[in-house]
Protein: MMPL family transporter
Amino acid sequence: MDVMIFMFKSLGKMTYVYRWIILALWGIASFLLILYAFKLPDVLSGDGFEMKGSYAKVQKIAKEEFNLPNNSVIVLFEKEEKVKEEAFRQFILKKLESVQNVEGLVSLISPYDQEGQLKGSVAFAVLGFDREFNDMGDILNELKMKLKSEDGIHIRLTGPALINEDMNKASQEDLKKAEMIGIPIALIVLLIAFGSFVAASVPIVIGLLAVGCSMGTLYFIGQQKELSIFTLNIVPMIGLALGIDFALLFISRFREELKSRDVKEAIVVTAQTAGRAILFSALCVILGLASMLVIDVEIFKTVAISGAVIVIFSLVIALTFLPALLSVIGRNINKLQVLEIKGSGEGVWHRFSKFVMNRAGILSLISFGILLFCSIPISNMKLSIPDATALPKEYDTRIAYEIYEKEFLGENHSEVLMIVRTKENDILEKESLRQLENLLQDLKKEEIVASVDSIFSIMGDLHYQQLYMLLHNDETKKKIAPFINKLVKGNQTIFTVHLNVDFDSEEAKEFVKRWEKNDGQIEVLLGGLPKFNQEIHDEISENFKYSLLIVFVSTFIILVLAFRSIVIPLKAIVMNIMSLMASFGLLVWIFQEGHFGFEPVPAIALMIPVFVFGVVFGLSMDYEVFLLSKIQEIYLKTNDNDRATIEGLSSTSRVITFAALIMIIVTGAFAFTGIVPVKQMGLGIALAIFIDATVVRLLLVPSLMKLMGDINWWAPKFLKKLQRANVFHEY
Structure:
């Protein structure tokens, strides 16, 4: 422990002595990194819901062996009543003719080539491209130029590449909107906290610097590894909140030390105290983020990597750049006073603490009741993978998707792509065809199977013997050869299974799990949205428990080392879990049930519970430690649990309240943005922090400290011996 004290003391001295060099180095580094930060959107692609599995394998086979397109663009045509049918037809054909030479186009299915693509005044065409998401930019721009609406006929484009492009665009707009809301309000809160414009401005600078440097670094990481477009929201959300909070804690202690010390001594002491607290805070958040790595889905890896980068930059800037800057500012930190701060408010908190302690039993029951009541809606939580409906309502991509879904897919419809392989090398041999027909008949017996497209349906519903005869007749063989060649490659063929349930229904998930098999005669690989959804859900549900285990065990160990107690870490973990459950319940109530002016949505984005848990568990544990560290410090001096709790709560409450308020404002600002999952994530984190900072920290912690008395500090003898060496005494 002495080593850590010495390390932070040395750090404080170094940042003071070499303050100008440190500022210069950070100035150069940040300037270069921020230049590349503006390029980060160019290297982001996809929603991050990619993983290894049957879906990815089928996609690869479909592309490489069956020449199915890599990306599809749906062109939606909608005519007004005044437009005649023939004029509508000629318009569609003319527009589709104009895109025939677009680079990368490998297929074009017109409404007049295939049944079911024209319904009254609405029609759609499907354009297939052999390009990846990142290579579709110029192609999409060309399509938008050539496929423009004209008088009486509207054209809208949608599809994965366009949704990805609009998600990227909306993310950038959301970032600007969140910053315009969050930063000014955060500045006002900091002015109330410090009274000085100089002191209030520094945390904002620290937060923006951390975000800019992190985004610049992620640009280079994005060159080597695919990063989700949600990185644009994750980094500013976590970075601004952490950067401002770290600076708030550091500056608060620095200003206190300046009352009795010179600038150099104040920097050294602040580094020894607040610096250690910031290190612990960063460690807690990184552990929460790192727990996501056990889930083998790219978006969680993106969040873990992006989050780790922003936490590390926030930490390093807070421990080097910030003390160097404060060394230069010195006593001018209190300049430009705009509010007079009269005392720290400890008297109010002292009276409140005594009020809680005197009613510990009833208030603990009320607190538990509030948390349990808020958790009730969680039983109705439905999780789904974000699609075009995650975009703002006014986006053409979303409008087109919703029209296409309503007019041509219906509410209960999904498709499963099956790659079927037989043991024989030639799937068109009679025995192989018999096996395929048996598979087909078994599929049709399923209640949720509406129809199946296969080689048996190219000329009506053929029996395997009829198909075999057609394939061995020279005249018919030539007629059906183009269709057979599309659907058959060696010993494998494609079945397209149409289900009469949604892709994210339990029935669809059970179907795709049941039908993937290899019995030695026939191997069936499944793809399509139902399989994609099932694999993602299973990966999260199967591995999230390991994420929880990593966070719980690592947090428990750290807290045991910090407090030399077994009871306090267990209690802190349980309270954190309860506050998170309450925030998830409120999230369901607000978004799924549509309260507080939010439009009801069918489901919460699949990644939100994992994100909120990973980020918030570390942050809320951070506040818990600030409070409990002070309580323990006083308890070790007085051996009076009640006095330690009252004084600990009263002396830490002001700074922790402002820190929590900053976190709520910065993350909560994202609730007013356009992308639904980003709204849910921002509000989810803000709610969790709010519950933790009010119900848990103000009521539950002191109540339970009172009720449990000296039991709070129980520990085995070997831990007791080390108790007085605790390094986490802060305030």
User: Anything to note?
Assistant: The chain has 23 helices and 13 strands. Residues 62 and 68 are 5 Å apart (CA to CA). Residues 160-194 form the longest helix (35 residues). The chain has three domains: 1-47+165-185+196-383+535-719, 69-158, 409-534.
